[in-house]
Hints:
Blueprint: H1 3-24, E1 28-32, E2 38-41, H2 45-50, H3 53-56, H4 71-82, E3 87-95, E4 101-112, E5 118-127, H5 129-150, H6 154-169, E6 173-179, E7 185-193, H7 200-204, E8 209-210, H8 221-228, E9 232-234, H9 246-251, E10 257-264, E11 267-275, H10 284-322, H11 326-341, E12 345-352, E13 357-365, H12 372-381, E14 383-385, H13 386-389, H14 398-405, E15 409-411, H15 421-428, E16 433-441, E17 444-453, H16 461-490, H17 502-519, E18 522-531, H18 533-540, H19 542-558, E19 565-570, E20 573-581, H20 584-599, E21 602-604, E22 607-609, E23 612-620, H21 627-643, E24 649-651, H22 658-672, E25 679-688, E26 694-705, E27 709-711, H23 713-723, H24 725-746, E28 753-757, H25 760-763, H26 768-779, E29 786-791, H27 792-797, H28 799-812, E30 815-821, H29 828-831, E31 838-841, H30 843-847, H31 853-868, E32 872-875, H32 881-889, E33 894-895, H33 906-915
Parallel strand pairs: 23-24, 26-28, 28-29, 29-30, 30-31, 31-32, 32-33
Antiparallel strand pairs: 1-2, 1-5, 3-4, 4-5, 6-7, 6-11, 7-8, 9-10, 10-11, 12-13, 12-17, 13-14, 15-16, 16-17, 18-20, 18-23, 19-20, 21-22, 25-26, 25-33, 26-27
Helix pairs in contact: 5-6, 5-10, 10-11, 10-16, 18-19, 21-22, 23-24, 24-26
Amino acid sequence: MTAATKFAEELRACRQRFDALVEFSSDWYWEQDCNFRFTLITRNSGTEERFPVAQSLGKTRWELPYIGVTDEEWQQHRALLNTHQPFYDFVVKHYDAHQNLRFSSISGVPIFDAQSRFCGYRGIGKDVTQHKRAEQREAMEHAITRLLTDSADPGDVMKRILQAICEISGWDYGSYSNLGAKNQVMLRIDVWCSPSIDATEFMAGSGQRRAGDPKSARSGMRRRSWEKAAPIWIADITRDPTFRRAAVAAKIGLHAAFAFPIFVNGVVCGVMEFYSREIRQQDDLLLRSVKVIGNQIGQFYQRKRVEARQAMEHVVTHLLAESATTAETMPKIIQTICETLGWDYGAYWSLNEQSRSVSCIATWHVPSLDGAADFVNYVRSKQFDVDILKTPKKDGGFMRRIWTNGEPIWVHDIEADTASKRALIAAKIGLRSVFAFPIWIGQKIIGAMEFFSHDIRQPDEILIETAHSIGIQIGQFCLRKQAEERIQYLAFYDGLTGLPNRMLFSQRLNHSLAQARRYKKMLAVLFLDLDRFKNINDTLGHEAGDRLLQGMAQRLSGCLREGDTAARFGGDEFVVLLEDIADFEQAANVARKLIRAAQSPFIIMGAEFHITASIGISVYPEDGEDSQMLMKHADIAMYLAKDRGKNNYQFYSAHSNAHSIERLALESSLRHAVDRKEFVLHYQPKVDLQTGRVSGVEALLRWMHPDFGIISPALFIPLAEETGLIVAIGRWVLNTACAQNKAWQEQGLPELCISVNLSARQFNDEGLLSDVAQALAASGLAPHLLELEITESMVMHNADNAVKLLTEMKAMGVSIAIDDFGMGYSSLSQLKRFPINTIKVDRSFIKDLMANKEDAAITRAIIALGKSLNLNVIAEGVETRDQVGFLHKYQCDEMQGYYFSKPVCESEFAKLLRAGKVLVRLN
C-alpha cells in the first residue's frame, strides 16, 4: 500500500469516525467562510428536527433573521475576532420543522491562514430550548414574586406583571380582566403592549363582555379560560374561527395567544391573556409557570383584600367607638370612605320603622363639586316607601335594587342608567359612577350607603367585599345604639304604652311641687285603676290586655292639657299629675272626663269590652307637702272609690276610716308586689346540736314596699290569704328558694335542705303538686334538698285529704315538716298517719323555757315524741345560751333563732356558709 493510499484510507476512517460522532451526538458542527457564510452544517436526525439547516446553508448571518445581533454585540464579537479568540454560547431564536420556537447556543473558533488572514469559523451548536425555557420560567416567577412582594397597590401591580411576562417570555401584548359585580360581567382592567405595535383598535374590541351571554360564543379566550378554569392556547388566532377579533389581530400582526385564570380561594376571579406577533405552538412549560403565577396573583389579591378590609374596618371601628350617636357617626364614615378611596360624594339612607320610609339623613362631598348644594337638597327631599322598595321591578333605581337584592350595586357609567332619576340628576353635575351597599342588622336591611365619582370607575371587588363587612359593622353599631336608646327610654317611659313611668313621673311631680311652693299654686295627683281588667286578661289573654292598656293610655292623654302628665306605674294602674289647678272642682272635672273615657267600649280582637275606672285624688297642699305623701293619699283615696262601688272618684279625706283605707291601699300594693319585684327572701340557718354547724336553712318572705318600707309578714300574709294572692306569692317563694339553693351549690357551697312554708290556701290549691314539680325542674334542685313546712291545723282540717297529698309529696322526694308543733289539736294516733320527716317546737314554748316549768315539760315531751317516731326535731326562736344547753341536754336535733343568726339576705348567708364556723360549742 502506497503512502497516498494509506493516507486516503486513514482519512476515510477518520471521516467515518467523525460522521458517527456527529450522527449520535445531540450537538452539530458548523463552518463559515471569511464572509460569515454557512458552508457546512452537519446533519443528523435531531438537527433536522430542531434547527433550520437547509435555510441556513449558503447564507450569511445577515441574511438569517433569527441571528439577531445588536451593534453592541457585534462590536464585542469583532473585538474577540481581532484578538483571534473564540466566542462561546451565543443564543439564537428560531423555529423548528413544526414551527415551534426553539433556542440554540452557538460557539465558534476563528480560522486563520499562515499569513493570519481570517478564513472563517468552525464551531458547534446545541439545542438549549429546555434550559432557556427553564431560565425564563425561573426569571419570570422570580420577577412576579418580587413584584407581588414589593407592591402595596393592587391597582398598579397588574400592569407591571403583564409587562414582566411579556418581556421575559417574548410576548407583545398582555391584558388582565376581572369579573364584575355578581361574576356576571368580564371587564378589561389593565393592558400592556410593546411600543412597536399600535393595539388601540384591538383593545377597543376587548372591553366589557358578559361571561354567560350566548351571544359571546365568539368572545374568545377569556370566556373559555374562565368557564373551563384552565389555560387556553391558540397557535395562530388569525386561523381560529372562534376568535372574534381575528381580523383586527391580523392588521397588527398578532398570531399566537394564550390565557390563564387567576384563582382566589379556588374561584376564578380574573383572566390574563397574552398575544405574540409570532406563530407559537403550545408551550407546556410556560403554561405550568403561569399556573403557578395565577395562584400567586390570587394569593396576593386575597392578602390585599384582607389588608384593605382590615384597614377600612379599623378606621370605621375607631369612628364607631368614638361616636356617641348615629347622626354624629355617619357623616364621618362617609367622609373617610370618600377621601380614602377617591369618591366625590357620599350619602347615608336610613329606614324609619314607624313611618316605613327610607330617607337620606347624612351626606358629604368634596368642596370642588359644582352643583352639590342643589343635588344634596334634592336627595334629602326624597323619601321612599320601604314596602314599595322591596317589590321587584325591572330596571329599578339604586335604592330599590339595594332593598330587592340585598347586595352591593356598582354602576360604572350612570349616563347609561336611565332607570334612576337620581342618576340623571347626578350626571348633570358631572358625576359618572356610583357604588352603594346595604346596612344590615341580622337578616334585615336598615339602611344603605352610596358613593358617586366624577370618573367612570370599573367595579372594585376588594371594595365590594370590604363594604359588605362595613355594612354589617355599621348595622351592629346601629343595633347597639338602638338598644342603648331603648334602655334610656325605658328608664323613663313605659315600654307598652309610651307613657312616663314611675321614675319620670316622680321627677315631674317633685319639679311641679317646687313650682307650686314657690308660686303658691295648687296641684292634684290622680290614681286611676281599671275595674275588672283582670277579666279581659283571663278571657282573651295578655295580648288583649296589652291592647286595652295601650288604648286607655291614648284616651288618658287625650283628656289632659299640654302641661299635665299621665303615667303608667304597671299593671292597670295609671297616675295623672294636674299642675296649676284653680280648685278641687277642676280636679274633679278631669276625673269625670277620665271615667267617661274609660266607659267607652273597647274593640279588641273583634270583641267589644266595657270597663270602668276608680280614681283617687290628693291635692297639694291640703293632702300632703311632699310627693310621697301625695302619692300615698291618692292611692288610699282610689281604694276608697273601689270600696264605694267602683266607677267613681274620691278625694282623700283624713276623717275617713283610716284603718279601712290603709287596708285597701295595702291590698292594692299587694296585688302588684310580685310583678314589681318587691318581695325578697331572707334566710335563717338551722344549726346541728351535735356539730354546732349549719345543717339547713329556712326561707322567710319579706316585703320591701317602695313607699311604706319593710312591711311585716304579720300584716300582709293574712291579707294575702284572704284575697287569694297567697297562691301566686307562694309559687314565687317556691321558685326563688329552689333556684337560690341550686345557685349556692353551683358556687361550691355545701348542700343544704331549704325549708319553705306553705299557707293553708296554698296547701289546698289544686296546682300545688304541679308548682312544686315545676320549681324543682326549673331550678335543677334535687328533691331531697327541699322541705315543705305545714301547720298542724292545715292537716287536721281534712286529715284524709292531707294524708293523700302529703304521700304524693313524699313520693316526689321532698321532705315534710310540721311547723309550730304543739299549738294545734293533733293526737299521737293522727300524727302517726302523716308521712312527715320533721316536727318543729313552736317558739312560744322556747321563749320562757327556763322560767316556765310547763313550757319546759311540753318541750321535753315534744322532743321525746319525735324521738319515739324517728322524726327530726327542731326548736325555733332560740335566743339564749341557757336555751341551747336545755335543748342539747334533752337531745333536740336542730335549733334556729337569733342566738345563731337573724334571717339574712342570700349573699350574707353565702358568706356564713363559706366561713364554715362552728356557731355553738356545747362541750
